[in-house]
Amino acid sequence: MAEGLHPPLQRTAHPHEPKEDDIEKLKKWQEARLERKLRGEYESAVFHLAELVNQNLETSLSVTSVRVDGATNTRKSFLGWLVQPWLARHTDDRASKSNNLQGALYTARGISHILQETDLFHSVDAKIQRSRDHLAREGDVDIVVTTREKGRFYLKTATEFGNNEGSVVSVTGRVRNIFGGAELLEGHYSAGTKTRRSFHGLLSLPLSPSLRTTGQLSLFSQERDLSSFASCSEISHGLKVAINSNWGVHGVHEIVYQAVLRHINNLAPGASVSIREHAGQTIKSSISHSWTKDTRDDKLAGSRGYYGKLFQELAGLSGDVSFYKAEIESQISRCLVPGMSLSLAARSGFLKTLTGPSHFVDRFQLGGPLSLRSFRANSMGPRDGVDSLGGDIYWSTGVSLVSDIPRKPHWPIKSHIFVNAGRLDAMDRTKGLGENLIGCLRKPSISAGVGLVYRFDPVRVEVNFGVPLLASKSDGVRRGFQVGIGMEFL
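Now predict its structure.
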């Protein structure tokens, strides 16, 4: 009988038996059906819970205590300092009838938010429970916050890029919550091409329960190679004490006291007489105030919003130098059409000495891809031989039209057309500030060009081709291609 069988043989499976593809489709259908069912049940439960809460918002509840669990490395006194304003607001605000479920929920959410703002916890979960106090009355509840703390120690090595700094090798160490009150102790050491060596040690701590005001104490030391525009190097060691306060929509204020020992050394054989006159050590003791407000949607390549900064410094509390220094900076961005935006930026500053001439280290420097494109870095203004001496008064402004690459709007590379103008001068002591400013405005240096902008978080890279249209004899111009790497561009 086997001899009568010849291939190909017919399929003997049942015609309605499911195939392997059909089984996979059925499995996916069942999973999707189960997912829809679970989603529906979840949404229904959330809806009923929200409805139940809304119907009982006026139910009388009084928060009697707050417990924070899991914060083993954080002082109880610090946690009480953070929580007390929220608890006092709930218990004391009887005129607005906040002693109800709505007030308790608002207090729990506020406490949860302020604990997250400390940056000490991976997770913060707040719950309202019946009070455990034996003397508790009807409606007394506790807020129980369950937390999970972050690690206290952090170490990082990296190769970074700064504002036209080139490559920088750095080591950063950090100890979080060192004394149990959200303090941060940080040490940073770096070695680079222009800033040869740099050390910065910082201790910061909150000064207000809202965490909007912080205090900082820092020690710093750095050695900078200035040979690209002046025939010398600079070594500085200093102490800085700062109070920083965030006023929300009204901006950020910072008050700083600084004491710095500066040393101009390593003079080149061809150093000018002007640089040699400023060689040696000086001490600066100053107090400064800065105000900053930033509403831009993107700090590196904004398409809407504005940025403003005002800086003032008074030196002469002690030390070798005495001056008043002010600087203002602003930028505004607007989207013209989808994929194209216009950016307008301006900066200005002046330095007024109170005794004697200004010192080289304290003066402004201008020029370069970050401040005035198509000019060499820090090469504008007064000059003595090969050395740029800096100036006491300056202004600069720039207009940039930034657009997407055609048919590639998702690329991080943008194209831009720019026009920059500015000038840096020494202050004429025989004239007033207004006359000096008018004289500086009358003789601008101007450049224009095109280029590519690449966003490489956290820095911005520009490759530009530009030409100087107007320039003073002392300005160092840069025709053709120029590359800029930094975080703050004109």
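DSSP finds five helices and 21 strands in the chain.
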